[in-house]
Amino acid sequence: MTDRFLLACRRQPVDRTPVWFMRQAGRYMADYRALRERHSLLELCRTPELATRITLQPVDAIDVDAAIIFSDLLLPFEPMGLAFDFVKGEGPRVEQPLRTEADIERLRLFEPREGLGYVLEAIAMTRRELDGRVPLIGFAGAPFTLASYAIEGGPSRDFAKTKALMYGHPEAWHRLCTRLAQVVSAFVVAQVEAGAQAIQIFDSWVGALSAEDYREFARPHTAAVFEALKPTGVPTIHFGTGTSAILPELAAAGGDVIGVDWRLPIDVAWDQLGSERAVQGNLDPTLLLGPRHRLLRAAEDVLQRAAGRPGHIFNLGHGILPASPLEHVQVLARFVHGYRPA
Amino acid sequence: MTDRFLLACRRQPVDRTPVWFMRQAGRYMADYRALRERHSLLELCRTPELATRITLQPVDAIDVDAAIIFSDLLLPFEPMGLAFDFVKGEGPRVEQPLRTEADIERLRLFEPREGLGYVLEAIAMTRRELDGRVPLIGFAGAPFTLASYAIEGGPSRDFAKTKALMYGHPEAWHRLCTRLAQVVSAFVVAQVEAGAQAIQIFDSWVGALSAEDYREFARPHTAAVFEALKPTGVPTIHFGTGTSAILPELAAAGGDVIGVDWRLPIDVAWDQLGSERAVQGNLDPTLLLGPRHRLLRAAEDVLQRAAGRPGHIFNLGHGILPASPLEHVQVLARFVHGYRPA
Lengths: 342, 342
What we know:
2 copies of one chain form a homodimer.
Chain A: H1 4-9, H2 30-38, H3 41-46, H4 48-61, E1 67-68, H5 77-80, E2 84-87, E3 91-94, H6 101-105, H7 112-115, H8 117-130, E4 136-141, H9 143-152, H10 160-168, H11 170-194, E5 198-202, H12 211-229, E6 236-239, H13 247-253, E7 257-259, H14 266-273, E8 278-283, H15 292-306, E9 312-316, H16 326-338
Parallel strand pairs in A: 1-4, 4-5, 5-6, 6-7, 7-8, 8-9
Antiparallel strand pairs in A: 2-3
């Protein structure tokens, strides 16, 4: 068993920099694509045997130091009463996006074991299958990012409807996010109880906010989730993209580890976060689409910038893109493990 | 005639802070929507009488200190040999996105008077119609942003194909951007000759790059455009979104005025840019969708942060969204003009 991932989360000494990749189980892998030909994304998420199998694929194929449960940020929507599906080429689509305050009031709280028992089963099953090889990460979306999907109905460029609700009906916004924070908190605590050894909170789209808006509209709700996780004792990771202007605010909401994207050099980001945080990142995932020499040169730059700082977990700045060659992902993981500071 | 916009571009004293809005002629205006019912977006762009009429709509309806010619970033594509159209709800779509180096080699240079004469006519016509009321801004896309549309075929979230070309075929990338810079340079110089009194270069999506990638892949080509504009003597504006991590690099490429979005407070951004630049921005456009008290409080915050710094041009951090009430835009412009530092 390699425990360097968990050690690095706590900024303890490690033999080499741990590495895993966001969306390491996904469409860039032939094994995954083969399963997707026979099952919808939601079927894969809802069938613990299949979710387990997918979670293990990259652990077998790539020299990673952690597994992350195969699941989706939007799964809590259905037991809340918000039906959604995945539309080819477009991503998730919520059937009836939230439009009125009544829509928000109708959102249900639920017992994770009842509403999302299949995720918890997959976690327990994956832990057994992993048999201690690498630790297992559970995850969920942060309230802001989940709220944006619930309001926009899918991915958004400008978050116009989300912000119109925030600015125009702040009480309704806070009620929505309070409810989302309750749901997410219960869900991630249940994931830990089921066997998750670390939790990553994805606030993927929070970079759309200024620091002031982050403080007012997002931070209290994300902080509630991290607060709920504290008694579990597992390390927590707080990830967002486009967060160059709000890193100290993001960190103030919580997270033993802060996940950063490629827009700021990792040492510059780390200086803003302070040395009491571990940092995860931050290679541009599109580098996996280019030539190997440029990929490894950029990876070396990340490692050099992080060298001498306890608590670096190597990762991408966002998920692996479907067109990435598996071989590049494998080479990258090996390169990270082979790296020694000059 | 109010010349406070042009004075502010040069950081000269003004009686009040000048204000204009990106996409101030657009779908949020009933007059514009009425024209769009009868004409496609491309027809409007290609008919100087209609483009002139649309350019003037906000000058008549809103207390703005500049007009910006009604046009579109992608218009140079067609005379280069890249057909495109606008797809309802999705934005621009290039019919055959660039896929191979041969596709890049086929891109044509052209005389702006021949390929885009209708834009130059619209500029000349608008100048006559404006009759000195407010100055007229011309514009074009920066090579990176144009290249991303040409390669992705439309808007993109991750710029995977764009970056794959950048990283994997840097010579082809630089040939493409060199050609785009030649086209854009000739086009904006011709716009000045036709009557444009300032030029804004939109590098809308350049915030997807790290500072290092910006330096290598975008900056030289944007710098070439600003270099070409120097002999014209008109003030230049350099705009991008999501640029919090690359502001000094962006400024190094050129621009008397740097346009910034809302992610960084304007004084923080300005400190990074240095006092020798004028700064344009930076209200979050979604604030126009919320209540008036919050809109004006946020506008006051921008004005207070910029107070005492010569060269502030009030604007949004990105274009006006279609759902914005015209009345809010009007109120905002009046508020900016009425503002006096405490």
